[in-house]
Design brief:
single chain, 231 residues, mainly alpha
């Protein structure tokens, strides 16, 4: 009996004591504290390594502001021709243009808000497009720095007189005028999108600009066919 007690006592002596609830709470608290500190340090490193947002006079900000204005006229023209044409192709095209460009306007408005920048610029319109590209050149092949004078009408923008003529036209005449104006408008829009691609490394801007170029080039080809059918 004594030997059994001795053996039991020996076993109890070598078995490590169970950790108390207090120790568990202390260790857990230390682990949580380490995790919080590590998270803060990682957050600081990430914030420090994140690229800076575009400035007020950047190509990205200028493009976002000016292209919103450019798109605004395209939407206006699209809505005008829908009221002046019964042709299903023209009406569907106009709806597609109005829908796509209104959505893109919203994206560019959101960029400026996210970057903490005003929706209007302290510089004349299109100043950003007169500045050199990132590679030091004038930009893309068809538009070099200095070709566009800041403050002058944007590429492809319809004049006041042309917009008045579209408002007064009806039927095939309105369709023909709309197609002529929108083709020129799209060519100007592509030019602006290509210019910002040459001047920006902001991925969201590059993605949207590339999408604009691809879509508007397709619409230019389609509108050219529609216009030829109405000559």
């Amino acid at each position: 009996m004594t030997s059994e007690l001795d053996e039991t006592g020996a076993e109890a002596a070598v078995r490590p004591p169970a950790p108390s609830r207090g120790r568990i709470l202390v260790v857990t608290g230390l682990l949580v504290l380490v995790a919080v500190v590590a998270g803060l340090l990682i957050g600081r490193v990430t914030a420090a390594s994140a690229p800076p947002t575009p400035s007020d006079t950047s190509a990205e900000a200028g493009f976002a502001r000016d292209m919103q204005t450019h798109h605004g006229q395209a939407v206006e023209m699209a809505l005008l021709v829908r009221d002046r044409s019964d042709d299903p192709e023209i009406r569907l095209l106009a709806l597609d243009i109005a829908t796509a460009q209104t959505q893109q306007q919203g994206q560019m408005f959101a960029w400026l808000a996210m970057w903490g920048l005003p929706q209007t610029s302290s510089e004349p319109e299109m100043t950003w497009m007169s500045r050199p590209a990132l590679d030091g050149s004038g930009g893309h092949s068809e538009h070099s720095a200095g070709d566009h004078v800041p403050g002058e009408p944007m590429p492809g923008l319809a004049s006041f007189e042309q917009m008045q003529a579209l408002q007064q036209a009806e039927g095939v005449e309105a369709e023909r005028l709309f197609l002529e104006l929108m083709i020129a408008h799209h060519i100007g829009g592509v030019e602006m999108a290509e210019a910002v691609v040459a001047r920006s490394d902001e991925q969201v801007v590059l993605d949207l600009a590339a999408g604009m170029i691809a879509l508007q080039q397709k619409e230019i080809d389609y509108m050219t066919e529609l216009l030829e059918a109405r000559q």
